[in-house]
Amino acid sequence: MSVCTFFCAYAQKYPFQDESLSIDDRIEDLLGRMTIEEKIAIIHAQSKFSSPGVPRLGVPELWCTDGPHGIRPEVKWDEWDQAGWTNDSIVAFPSLTCLASTWSEKLGRLYGVSIGEEARYRKKDVLLGPGVNIFRTPLCGRNFEYMGEDPYLAGKLAVQYIKGVQSVGVAACVKHFCLNNQEWGRHVVDVRVDDRALYEIYLPAFKMAVTEGDSWSLMASYNKVDGQYACHNKRLLQDILKGEWEWPGAVVSDWGGTHVTDEAATNGLDLEFGTGTNGLSGRAKRSYDNYHLAFPFLDGILSGKYSQADLDDKVRRVLRLHFHTTLNRNRPLGCINSEEHYDAARTIAQNGIVLLKNEGNILPIKGENKKIVLVGENVVKKMTVGGGSSSLKVQREINPLDGLQNRFGGKASVKWIRGYVGDIGGEYNGVTTGQNLKETRSFSELVDEAVRESRDADYVVFIGGLNKSWGQDCEGGDRRTYNLPYKQDSLISELAKVNKNLVVVNISGTAVAMPWADKVGAIVQAWYLGSETGNALAAVLSGDVAPSGKLPFTWPEKLEDVGAHRLDAYTDKVEEYKEGIFVGYRADGRVEGVKPLFPFGHGLSYTTFKYSSLKADKKTISPTDSLTITLRVKNAGTVKGREIVQLYISDLKSSLPRPIKELKGFKDVELNPGEEREVSFKIGRDALSYFDDKKHEWVAEPGDFEALVGASSRDIRGKVAFKLK
Ligand code: BGC
């Protein structure tokens, strides 16, 4: 019998194996063949990261992995401990805040394809990411895993990431749905938010991820919303996600986020993971049969408490996930640690680094015969280990010292001075960086040394910021203060006194207080850049690449400037989002005297860009029309650069209060010196609408609008007026 005849006969016998049929038909066929026990088995975990499939019918196990910056090292079947593999070291891609700072849909796609290929090689079917929770407070321990404060920007990049991952037959699992905007008390906090803020700020990136991005799965979050856990929150999952948005995908619980069988059974959860665990510590062995969606649910169905229809709906959704992944025979095999993946990681990192300040153009560093003093623990600290579930085991990680020495060494003297002691650990869940960062000298001895060495240096590059230890940029806790830890503020101030060529490179996934901002020459925001950290940083500091990233969030001067802290108690109990829709730059102009340290969308280059010829193709549009806005952008400097042009819409008069402006488009253009190009945006009714919570619908009110085009939310280079009929 030929292979073809065999498969044809097989497909005739098992139509669910017949790829010429629609997925819906195949699901129905498979569903009809499954016993109730098999159905129950595929809707909950069988190990830390897998569910069993249907072995009798040839449906493979479904394997999940963190996510979202690289493929997590293998843990034991039943435990969080390392499995001890020697072949699970991978490439660490930059943190998602860095991706957001590129404002590049192209790089979002590259990120997705690259990490998807690594997931495939590691035989994973579901990648637990991307994260699109909105940056509401700079203290949130997981901001580094998210994409900033603007739902449109986060949504657009998430869509590309998801499409990239799924193009290689791995499901994305957009997380954490929703309102998981703080880590403090994440398992108990109960969020209250008004419908305008829910629909305008906290839901749109998820909606884009599951509609435009067609994410095949979604992870519900730990927190409660209106008193009910998000993992079985009827309003969020049944009414909005599956009802209003008609999403056919599978809802996965966050690990240990399921608490109530009755609600898990009926409120839209499809696949239960991690129950019986409390993060990384204690758990009962082999508790899978006791999961809410295991025997308790089965018993309830058999006794007539829950319906067969509830079960079948979950099974259909999980089977759909299988058809896209484990049952897709055409998936590529993938690869890890390829030079293409390192190139992708470096390109994303280089394009995401943000130059916040560059007084007197002290950057780029002109290295020839110069003395360059690097100060700070983050000059050497490897950052791919730590941070919680996104912690990685990498094949290689170039730290800033290696990167800068490789770039400048030989021609310049590059010296590392410790400066301060932060986290000397470098261990997460059994993976270690192998670095020994122990230090016996006191803080004042370290400062004295740094000051002494900095005095006659041509450049002092302080590389500090946060790290991935608990209470900083790390899952499961928030920062307690906005200031930098380990007395870095005082060290930076001392360095600023002795050398005006002081460059501060801040490594963090979120904003930090910079009380010394006006005393230092240059400030570079470098995020967590992954495997290629040092190379990417050296490329930007040396000018091999002009910086082009822009902030995906507003950088507050002080914590009280942030609505979540000014207006709320900021608690781990009932957390009321009193600032409503006025999050980040949307709060501009609302409180007198409040000005960000750096605005949303801000980022400098080593060149300058001129904007001209801004126009709209119509003066008046009807609700079904679209409007095209064009302008010309010119590189007016002497080096090649990339500009991110931002389009904001301003509704000049509206029945309900609205932000002064909202981002509704962005484009990046790469230009050689002197080169000029046209940039255009097309917008429709969506870009003009707000969510009317009384009517429960999006409303575009007739009247006067302005399209503002700028290099940041506070650097508007031109505007055109138009009317909506
Ligand atoms: C995190 C998720 C993660 C999961 C599995 C949870 O603690 O919140 O983001 O995907 O663990 O590791």
**Runs with pLDDT <50, length 5+?**
278-284
First-last Cα distance = 68 Å
Major beta sheet, specifics? 6 strands, mixed
Which ligands accompany this protein?
Answer: beta-D-glucopyranose
What radius of gyration results from the CA coordinates? 26 Å
Question: What percent of residues adopt helix (DSSP H or I)?
Answer: 25-40%
Name the beta content range.
15-25%
Tell me the strand order in the biggest sheet.
Answer: 1-2-3-4-6-9
Briefly say what this structure is.
By secondary structure, the chain is of the alpha/beta class. Helices cover 26% and strands 20% of the residues. It has a six-stranded mixed sheet with strand order 1-2-3-4-6-9. Strands 10-17-16-15-11-12 form a six-stranded mixed sheet, with helices on both faces. A five-stranded mixed sheet has the order 20-28-27-22-23, with no helix packed on it.
Structural summary, described in words:
Helices cover about 25% and strands about 20% of the residues. The protein has 18 helices and 28 strands. The strands form seven sheets. Strands 1-2-3-4-6-9 form a six-stranded mixed sheet. Helix 13 packs across helix 17 and helix 14 packs across helix 17. The longest helix has 17 residues. It starts with a helix and ends with a strand. Bound molecules: beta-D-glucopyranose. The site of beta-D-glucopyranose has 7 residues, from loops.
Keywords summarizing the entry:
six-stranded mixed sheet, 725 residues, binds beta-D-glucopyranose, 20% strand, alpha/beta, 18 helices
